[in-house]
Amino acid sequence: MMNEAFKALSDPTRRKILRLLRSGDLTAGEIAGHFSLTKPSISHHLNVLKQARLVLDERRGQQIVYSLNTTVLQDVMGWLLDVIGSGEKKGDKSNE
Amino acid sequence: MMNEAFKALSDPTRRKILRLLRSGDLTAGEIAGHFSLTKPSISHHLNVLKQARLVLDERRGQQIVYSLNTTVLQDVMGWLLDVIGSGEKKGDKSNE
Q1: Which one of A11, A14, A17, A43 has the fewest beta carbons within 10 angstroms of its own beta carbon?
Q2: How far is B92 from chain A (nearest CA, A)?
Q3: How far is Cα A8 from Cα A40, in angstroms, rounded to an integer?
């Protein structure tokens, strides 16, 4: 699960797709509009993100709409916080 | 930079090495002691982590000592926080 997530995140196009979805759900066409890549290429990236469970897809009428699935990203962040360790402490201190 | 970091993090052995280094600096031999992998294999993983700037290596006498470099991990976490978005807000609320 973590392996696939990190692998999916290692591509800048896929990271940009996730950032786009932060503002709201988008169709594959809308996503493709933000890139100078072919639709099959965008499709491939969306599929990798879907396999890694970083996005969810849902059919709405004629279209498939993609949304951000933050569950796995939260897991990844939990792991990073655990390794960085002092990062959490720093956060606490800034509120003192 | 981010691409290499995420790629390096996609391997469970490498993630475990980073967790080990959280508690303090270690030599390659000490790291290898935690795995049932060959030393060349551990060397390879350490090299990938070094290329991704997730670890630093320093010669101390006869030995090379590895330490965690949290700079890139902080960048990765910054990106994740930015995408998750509400994660940051949740953190703030828990202190109210």
Answers
A1: A43
A2: 9
A3: 17
Mind listing the pLDDT tens digit for each residue in A4-49?
Answer: 999 999 999 999 999 999 999 999 999 999 999 999 999 999 999 9
Range of the domain at B63: 2-84
Tell me the ipTM for this assembly: 0.84
Is the predicted pLDDT of residue A90 greater than 60, yes or no? Answer: no
List, in order, residues 6 or more apart from A81 with CB less than 8 Å away: A87, A88, B77
Interface with chain B: mutation pick from A13, A67, A80, highest number of B CBs within 10 Å: A80
Residue recorded with tokens 């930079």: B1
Residues B59-84: what's their mean pLDDT? Answer: 93
CATH of the domain at B60: 1.10.10.10
Q: Would you give the end-to-end CA distance of chain B in angstroms?
A: 36
Chain B residues inside the 8 Å CB shell of A86: 70
Using CB atoms within 10 Å of the CB of residue B76, give its burial: 0 to 12 exposed, 13 to 18 middle, 19+ buried: buried
